[in-house]
Amino acid sequence: RVxxxxxxxxxxxxxxxxxxxxxxxxxxxxxxxxxxTENQVATNRAILAKAFSAEKVEQDYKNLVSNIYEI
Length: 71
What we know:
elongated, single chain, about 70% helix, about 5% strand, two-stranded parallel sheet, about 70 residues
């Protein structure tokens, strides 16, 4: 399990992606150091691989540069 502060922008970003990440203040007492299920681990890996693949990063970079030059 990954615990983060709920106010952390990265926490909210990962939650929007559908990644299993937990709020340290609210979830640690319930889950502690229990591991994720195999399905949850597989889901997290698949989402992260898609969101941060070389192709996705390259496309995001191209979009960013394109938007800068349109302004």
